[in-house]
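Supplementary notes for students who missed Thursday's class. We covered one full example, reproduced here. Read the sequence, then the structure, then the short commentary at the end.
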Amino acid sequence: MSTQQLNGTTAKLLVLVTGANQGLGYYASQQLASTGKYHIFLGSRDLNKAHKAIQQLVADDSVKVSEHDLEPIQINVTSDDSIKAAAKHVADKYGYLDILMNNAGIAAQQAANADGTGPTLRELYHRHYDTNLFGAAVVTEAFLPLLKKSTTEGGKRIAFTSSALSSLEWAATLDGEMSGANYPLYRSTKTAENMVMIHYARSLEAEGFVVSASDPGYCATNLNYYHGAKDPRQGAKALVIAATGVKEQIHGRVVDDESNAEPW
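Structure (token representation):
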């Protein structure tokens, strides 16, 4: 099926958003769908949750979206079999993908409980890297052949959801929440993810790709038990910019919701 055949005669960019049944991915999907320019695969580990998220988006009168622009897909970024199945589904149904948004991520407890129960430090690091880094890398490789088949303007895009906490410069020079003494586990996964992003930005640029990462800010989502000070709707704008923004402003960079590049 060609891009022109998708959703009738209207050319809409085909987008996959992982971890989109809640939080930043949910609102980024809403913002993309509200433009009428995109057909979004709303990715979730649980297909029922993806269906429920779409129902909620359609029922939300504050931002109008069409149910026809949202499609559920099951994808667990910690499972190679799940990733392969999702890529096969998109390949069989459409034969290409225009935009990949690697958004799925976790930020669990930073250490074992005081009484010694719970996961070990090694288990915590493995769990975080498996989702935040390995998952994003494997998903990108799995969908890269489909992204290379994109022929529509605005396609051949890969966006990663990063964080201001990934900045080595800020970790080394600032105090408070941005200090390197805070959250070494989570933030190190995002620093590593930035390196993966740069790899793809450099290696795929000659083929017309635009690759970037977003810094949505400290948003109130399930990732931090809704303790964030920023509205996730605002933070989701950074995800959209990283996926659809002007190449000269975002390519090979980590950008915020105003297209400002964050320091390394």
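Commentary. Helices lie at 23-34, 47-59, 80-93, 121-147, 168-173, 184-204, 232-244, 247-250. The domain at 3-255 is CATH 3.40.50.720 (Rossmann fold). If anything here is unclear, bring it to office hours.
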